[in-house]
Amino acid sequence: MNELEELTRAVVDCMPLEKTKEIVIKALKGGAKPLEIIEAVSKGLDRVGEMYENGEYFLMELTLAGSTASEVMSMIKPRLKRDATPMRGKVVIGTVLGDFHYIGKDIVIAMLGSAGFEVTNLGVDVPTERFIAAVKEVKPDVLAMSGLLTIVVDEMKNVVDGLKKEGLRDSVRVMIGGRAVSHEYAEQIGADAFGANAIDAVRLTKRWVGGD
Amino acid sequence: MGTRRDDVLKTMDLEEPEHVPIFESHIDPPHMETLMFPERFWSPEDRPASERVELLKHNAEILVRCYDRLGFFIVRVNVALNPPLGWSAKILSKEEAGRLSRETGLKYTLGTFIDEWGRGTVYDHRCRKWVQQYGTLTSMDEWERWAENFPDPFAEGRDLDAKIVMRLAEERGMATFGVLRSPFATLFEAFPIEIYYRLQLEHPDFIKRAVKAYTDYNCSIIRLYGELGCDLVVSSGDLAHRDGPHMSPRIFNEIYFPEKRRQVEAAHEVGMKYVKHSDGDVRLLLDGLVNVARVDGVHSLDPSAGVDIGEVKEMYGDKIFLMGNVAVDSLALKTEEEVVAETKECIKKAAPGGGFVLSSSNSWYTHCKLRNCLAMVRTGMENGRGST
Known about the structure:
Number of helices of chain A: 9
Number of strands of chain B: 13
Helix content of chain A: 55-70%
Mean pLDDT of chain A: 89
Number of helices of chain B: 15
Oligomer: heterodimer
Strand content of chain A: 5-15%
Radius of gyration of chain A: 17 Å
Order of helices and strands of chain B: HHHEEHEEEHHEHHHEEEHEHEHEHHEH
Order of helices and strands of chain A: HHHHEHEHEHEHEH
Shape of chain A: globular
């Protein structure tokens, strides 16, 4: 097994972070390109996603695979910049105002990152104005909003309405996700889609932006 | 005609009561105040810390009278999560919040309140309650240091309001449930969740030891509830999310449910029943809850996560009683007519033969429409009598 295969296995098996980092360093020293590293991690995440959807893996494995992917991405980010590696598209993401939940959002970020998207994470408890400002500034292909509490679903509507008011709605695809929302709700508030989970969110983004 | 408590006791013995019991595990203060107008439910901002005893006593009275006015059959008693007298919370300084944010990538803020269990909480002014933010322990060593002063179940002051609730409930013929927090939830809430998951995967022996410590605490609290005269305990804390369990059922069956069984046995020793609450899709965990942990009842059965109370009744109705499951999302988002129809459906599926308590799939929180909540109760009152 070469280092890249080892890296894929490390993501799938949720190996300890330090061990995974050692594999990345070894791979880079052995001449692997940053994009090859991303590809190896992405393969691992795809496998974890399949296992999650098949019921072999649970939230724990999905979260850990996501956090491993994030760590690897931060390790190779400077090299990506240096090599001016083109990214697949841009995504702005955040948990809406009044909600501090982050797990689902962070898994989506990790998976999008390793799928080659440039992701701007606005964090949690994000007010409407900040979403709008980020859309203006970053000009993303996709705006993704997450919310676990029913109490915050109105906030998602506020953001969509805000985009319309600012004349930005047609410039960006809007995806919503989280326990509190649904396909019906996405339709109701004028979002483009509901991502049922992280795997679904990545699938949708790839379809919209990546040409998959 | 028996009391409401009699109906609850029959239900918990899987017999058919005169009337299907109705209850909520929690109602947010804004709703409680609307129901009890002009009386006010005191918030921490209404009274200085030095008047905590008065605040607890006042709120205990309002709680029981509100539940009584609603016609609920069971009222909540909290000893487990009440801090003792003289305990003062640690509030994160700007520097500490900054350090934690850097280490974990999460949003800790100046003023995050760290509770007795190491959990970061923030005060939600809209719902007027403390809500969990993130855990504040970031390693096994930090947990070990925290555990050197592990919370004492017998510390003075935890039961300050419990006796008031018990007396008022008894006068009204209502049953009482003692609140517990499940060791699984208490542990994973003490850490940022990724760190907790890593510990679970890489240090299962540490997790086992920690779970045992939380279970010991809960067993002592269960005995206190027994001495107070409670009828059941409800262990809060979610084991699942919308897609399914947090972790493999195998891990729950090997690590968490044997310790839960110790709590169930402690409850039985003092004549109480034990109920596990969880939101989310718990279907893969029900077998372990029934056969490994041997709980007496399950609460919530979250329909928004796909749990069908009729199916659960068919599979486990001869072993456990069911509490649920009008979707809290319906209470927040649907019409009164839709809530009435959902409540009738819930009763139709789960009430025949007994062993069923009607409630929402979580609680009445601020964003639920109160008229929907009351429609659920009214429908329960009208349709829950006799053989259903």
